[in-house]
Amino acid sequence: MDRTNTCPAVAILIIIAGILIAGCSTPDTKDQAVQTTVTPADSPKYSVGDIVRNPSSATATAFLIIGYDAATDSYERALVNKNPDGSWGYRIDNRTDSATRVVMEKVYTDIVDSKDPSEVPIVTPTLPPSTPTMTWVPLSTATTVVSTAPRITKILPDHGDAGTTVEVTDLVGMNFANPASVRLRRAGSIEIQATSVKAVSNTSITCTIAIPSSAAAGAWDVVVTNPDGQSATYTNIFLVHQTISSGLTTAATSAGTIPIYFIDPAVGHYGDNQITVTGANFQKGAKVTLQKTGMTDITARETDWSSNTTLTVFIAIPRAMNGAWDFRVTNPDGSYGVNFGKFIVN
User: Fold this and answer.
1) What CATH architecture is 151-241?
2) What is the model's pTM?
3) Do domains 151-241 and 251-345 have the same CATH topology?
4) Distance from CA of residue 325 to its chain's centroid?
């Protein structure tokens, strides 16, 4: 056999086989080999209906996510409260606001529940289970003493503006007696005593509530006390609104060129606090500071600019800082406004 002539032929066959094998790999196969799944690295963390809260806060409130706006990279949110049974939750009004995604996902990191926003009631107190059927029983105008404690289930109306007088047409409950007393109560605020209180039956009271113009905005407790000293409290059932007009007369700017109409809430506590400030001429990058003679300034760790009239402030208050503090807003251009002694720490 002539090995010299055989080798070139074998080499040619090997080359042809390699070409045929390479031809079996279609373009589709090659494409599939390099395809990867790309996931957005910075997508919103929360979905509509998520209820989120600050895990370091002791308050019984959280935020319900209403929506997300990609154009502004911000969440629309609503304040949510706990029901009497500890579940989440209900809203005390239909207001919503906007907060940047950075703030929400950095501060409110605890997802406590998720509900369709349409299933979260507004100013509709959750009644305790097994509420008995109530019947109307007339009361005499003479003093009546009952042996069982009163109970509150509803108040109409359940809201009022600071600086106005509210005529309560029906405070509904059980075991009311004349002469009962009615008052509004909120932590850090002076109680508001109702007048013209009358138990028209053992299930209904009428009264008049004069809300001071300086009353803190937000939810207040309603307390009914019978003549025998027994009382009932329904927490967060009555809502006080602040208006810009009332803020102009009760929280006018004491110094500077930036009007500060009102601070909600105007009472702070040790730990993390969220405050809404309403005024005018606020600039992006504005800073909020609490000041008190002889004390170190407390500067907000974050100020969220919503508009030139609204700031959302996140401020951590150290221990042993009780008392009245000046509330100062300072713009990047150096303009400022101060309300002297308008913020109370307790």
Assistant:
1) Sandwich (2.60)
2) 0.37
3) yes
4) 23
